[in-house]
Amino acid sequence: MPTKSIQASTLRPDELDAVYAINKVVAETYEVDDALDQITKISRKVLIFDNAVIYLAQGENDLAPIFARAIGRGKESASELVWGDKAAEEVIKNGETFTHESNIAPDGDRLNQPYILGLPMQIGGQITGALIFIRFGGPEYTQEQINLAEFITLHISHLFQNKKLVERIANLEAERRLVELQDEFIAMVSHELNTPLGFIKGYTTTLLRTDTEWDHETQNEFLTIIDEEADRLSEMIENLLDSSRLQAGALPMDLRPVMVETIASDLQERYQSRYQNLTIEVKVPNTNAKIMTDPKRLIQVFDNLMNNINKYAPNSHDRIDFNINNNEVEITIRDDGPGIAPKHLPHLFDQFYRVPELSGGVRGSGLGLFIANMIVQAHNGSITVESKSNEGTCFCISLPLIEVNNG
Ligand code: ADP
Q1: Which of 18, 84, 162, 312 stands the most exposed, by the fewest C-beta atoms within 10 Å?
Q2: Is-contact 397 376, C-beta < 8 A?
Q3: Angstrom distance (rounded) from CA 236 to CA 364
Q4: Ligand 1 centroid, distance to 366 Cα (angstroms)
Q5: 118 Cβ inside 6 Å of ligand 1
């Protein structure tokens, strides 16, 4: 049931000013609580009330008080919404302005004599909530005051309508961005997977040609390319799967105690032979300290970092240092390669992030550091990066040591 039309001509000049001021707040303030605070203050200048409460209809029969201000009498009972609850139910049920004048309380306490004015809030003819004013101990609401309160309610309804619109636009924007990200992801993944696949297909077709004979050396060269590209393809698929499992928290970690010294000396052996163009120094610490780790996953972190050094800082001098500090081991992996400009550093561990200046001609998916970070976090550790253009890059991994009970 819609409320009767509101008559602006019945408003006094100071009331009209207040209504315009409220209208301005609604048009200019997107923060609803902030706007309601301002509207309460403006309304108080032209309408007497002790409490104001706004209820929003939620679902079929539910009402939620979303704003309450106690200004005059009964300030302490701001949280006591019992008067308002009943009035709001009544207003929403009938869709009409509602007044209730209390009988004189036998104890003479004004707080037990609420005079209630309940007004329906509407959007597009639909009742969306109720605004309740309370005066303790009167006076009664005059028709002019009820008329003014209906104006205020109309503006508050607009405020919520605006909020709904803003939320809807934000949701649409988020949905659009998600679709855009999915498109970018599919384009990137297809490109990355297609490149090695293209090589494999091209060289296989060439080898299968019946009109040409390939000497043994050429055949070997082609087969080596096919073999390498197949490895790259499977590494890429593995990375994609790992990264989605890590994000979903579904990559199991097989944590066990391992000596820090053992990890360090394994690294020395592993990388010295693998990367002969790099000069790698590993400082093996002399310590009994142990960490809880999934060795396979931790090696994956070092592999990703060293693989990057090989790609982006070829021929560099590199150091891996282990330092035991209090209750953690700090592992630094340092190269003296081209470095990374400061603006890229905050994004380096983001999924699919690649530094444009460095990625020309160097293949990668921007997943290596993302995966490294997730694995380190699954160890309750952290990984950070420091770098300067033309000076080199340093990654620092901190992992908690197992506490040794000496007692
Ligand atoms: P990618 O598959 O591109 O190598 P990563 O997540 O492993 O992805 O690395 C992200 C980006 O960080 C790389 O594309 C590269 O631009 C930069 N990067 C990583 N390590 C180094 C390094 N040691 N020196 C210079 N740039 C690096």
Answers
A1: 162
A2: yes
A3: 9
A4: 7
A5: no
Say if ligand 1 is within 6 A of residue 312 CB. yes
Is the beta carbon of 359 within 6 A of some atom in ligand 1? yes
Is residue 364 in contact with ligand 1, taking CB distance under 6 Å?
yes
Per-residue pLDDT tens digits for 342-360? 999 999 999 889 998 887 7
Residue having the nearest C-alpha atom to atom 4 of ligand 1: 364
- Contact call for residues 155 and 26 (beta carbons, < 8 A): yes
Q: Which of 235, 354, 362 to mutate to test the pocket of ligand 1 (most atoms within 8 A of CB)?
A: 354
Q: What are phi and psi of 102, to 5 degrees?
A: -80, 150
Q: Which amino acid is at 90?
A: E
| Contact criterion met (CB below 8 Å) for 156 and 37 | no
Instruction: Tell me the two tokens of residue 61.
Output: 């029969």
Residue 240 alpha carbon to ligand 1 centre in Å: 16
Token code pair at residue 72: 């005059």
Q: Token digits for 281?
A: 């120094």
Q: Is the CB of 308 under 6 A from ligand 1?
A: yes
Please report, as a single letter, which amino acid is at residue 80. E
371 Cα distance to chain centroid = 19
Report which of 371, 343, 372 is spatially closest to residue 355, judged by C-alpha positions. 343
Q: What is the pLDDT of residues 173-213, one digit of tens each?
A: 888 888 887 887 788 788 888 889 999 999 999 999 989 88
Q: Is residue 335 within 6 Å of ligand 1 at its C-beta?
A: yes
Average pLDDT over residues 101-113: 72
Q: What percent of the chain has pLDDT over 70?
A: 93
In whole numbers, what is the pLDDT of the chain averaged over residues? 88
